[in-house]
Amino acid sequence: MPKSNYSVGNPKAEQMIQDLVDFCGNDVAPDLIKEILTTVVKMGLEHKDRGDFKLTNNTLKELRHAYRVFMPYREKRKVVIFGSARTPKSDPSYRMAQDTAQALVDKGHMIITGAGGGIMEAANRGAGRANSFGINIKLPKEQRANLHIDGDSKLMQFKYFFTRKLMFIKESDATILFPGGFGTLDEGFENLTLFQTGKCMPRPIILAEPKNSTYWGSLAHLLEEELLSREYISSIDRNLFHIAHSVEEVVQHLEDYYRYYHSLRYVNELTVLRFTQALTPAVLDYLNHEYRDILRTGDFQALDGALEAEKTYNEFPDLPRLVFQFNKQDYGRLNEMILWINRNLT
Questions:
Q1: What φ, ψ does residue 166 adopt, rounded to 5°?
Q2: Candidates 3.40.50.450, 2.40.110.10, 3.30.830.10, 3.40.50.300; correct CATH number of 75-257?
């Protein structure tokens, strides 16, 4: 929530900030616009380091531009596909990435990549320009956008990895990772960390590889033999991702995830899962028996529509809800529960 007492502390500055807020004419978030402008003025008064201003300026400009590019497409589900920029066209992973992107577009999804070569090129190629986004990164050795997204209005250029990675997560509904190097693993572990800690909304995270590949299986073995055995992770964290060995398996897992599950929202102490179909009494009984371990207190309850706090912003008011007090710790179990509901709600 905005800070009601957040101010510069100077009446003249406060009036100028308010005049700018009024000039924007934005009736959705005037309070937040005021805080942003206040922060800029406070920085101007407090800081003398030009580098700090450059970083802040570039960050805000990159985010503003990306928001503008994605805004017209917010109603469509989008899948981000990661993988090595060095994967040759002869590699089975290249063909699988291309076919996966095409199959997902056929199901109504759009595709986001890092806009480079290899797996990224394959995914943009499979999706086609009309259904592709590219989030490129400016490197000392310039990374050229692949031919299937270069010149498109949905291609973005980012200076910073952190803003780029933010947009990958924020604007997508699912993550697919093909074999790759440090960058791919970085994106993969960031996705897993954000989900594990509740810093992103639930999503399918799919580790995709051709049949007979050992890439992700070797990583899963490392996680079990080293991280799990040392209790650096818990056994339920294995539920945060799914390994798939065919285009059909990738698409099926993603489709299963959103078969009935729609979105999540926290309302004070409550966790609200929205579905496109009402939960049956049998499903609710099963949840209260089998998934009680993720509750902080109380029971799972089904609602026909939105809570009052959701109605304020007209957040899918007619969708059925599952409401409960989640412990905000066992996200692997939460993910397992979402998949179970999707597969058993008929």
A1: -60, -45
A2: 3.40.50.450
d(CA 223, CA 217): 10
Give this prediction's pTM.
0.94
Instruction: Give the pLDDT of the chain (346 residues) as one tens digit per residue.
Output: 566 689 999 999 999 999 999 999 999 999 999 999 999 999 999 989 999 999 999 999 999 999 999 999 999 999 999 999 999 999 999 999 999 999 999 999 999 999 999 999 999 999 999 999 999 999 887 678 999 999 999 999 999 999 999 999 999 999 999 999 999 999 999 999 999 999 999 999 999 999 999 999 999 999 999 999 999 999 999 999 999 999 999 999 999 999 999 999 999 999 999 999 999 999 999 999 999 999 999 999 999 999 998 988 888 999 999 999 999 999 999 999 999 999 999 8
User: Domain boundaries in the chain?
Assistant: 11-71, 75-257, 261-344
Q: What is the DSSP letter of 235?
A: G
User: Which is it for strands 242-244 and 205-208: parallel, antiparallel or unpaired?
Assistant: parallel
What three-state secondary structure class fits 133? Answer: strand
- Residues 179, 83 contacting (CB under 8 angstroms): yes
Helix (H/G/I), strand (E/B), else coil: 180: coil
